[in-house]
């Protein structure tokens, strides 16, 4: 024990003792700072000031992906459909086809009304109407001077109406003015336009027992499917159509899970135009859904900003033509999203780009009859053109366009 009787077990640090300890009366400021820092964990500081900001930035960039990947934990899959097998061959009589489905043939076919909301899908509309024109009694088209997101847009169909002379005698065309409510949920404007389309359908003269096709322009029922439904009695009053799901062109086949297209036996006062699930019955292999199947890069950007899921455009660079072109040729997602599935197995199975399909079998007949015109929709033709500004060169329309038939 040291002389004087004083003893301590406390460990000392020469540096801190010199700079901060009781024996030191004068110390350099740098020495004091070094003394203070000796008590701080540098790794903790790096985690706090570097790791945490990087984590927050990562969530900002990829949070949507995390949410979609974890979807099976917070959302259950919808009720399964009642699957109706679909029988067809061009050499089988209509009477036999009706019997194969458990239905019976009619003495005469029902009238068919095809009703669509139109934005800017001119080529898809031409393919659709040429596929259906032998079977449709009346084509009904409504367009607005407003996108679903409340942006002013030209009346694209009106500008291209000359291309559709082949249905002019059977066309009910209507225009409805947008409401242009700032900051409103896009689905509200979409619903408003669908209600207006419901009114236009009645103006077109539909009556009880007629068939009404409800689907978007790019959801194309096959002609033989509509022919079957108009000739057979005993079909469900409401029937969803399972369509083959394509992205960007008929090169990138995604799956067979497109079901929103539907056919209804019209009931006055009961049938309402809608684009959601309305029944459990689903007729398989009934046509094609070609989503974002545009000729020009500007058309992709226009739809990305115009349709109800505009919230998916999280960054402005998503709209760059060079990026859009790269995404199209890769078969990747325009919005950098994960697959919208309800099981981890299905999510993992669909990760990454869509594989190219080189089959052009069983596609819309008008497409294959006009290969030179629509070559960009066929396998091996992912490059898109850069059109002149198709919005800038058009005249602007009044915001207050009443629903009208033209």
Automatic annotation (TrEMBL):
One MF term in the entry's GO annotations: beta-1,4-mannosylglycoprotein 4-beta-N-acetylglucosaminyltransferase activity
A GO CC term assigned to this protein in UniProt: membrane
One Pfam family here: Glyco_transf_17
GO biological process, one term: N-acetylglucosamine metabolic process
InterPro entries (alphabetical): Glyco_trans_17
Domain of life: Eukaryota
UniProt keyword terms in alphabetical order: Membrane, Transmembrane, Transmembrane helix
Transmembrane segments: 40-61
The name this protein goes by in its record: Beta-1,4-mannosyl-glycoprotein 4-beta-N-acetylglucosaminyltransferase
Organism for this UniProt entry: Vanilla planifolia
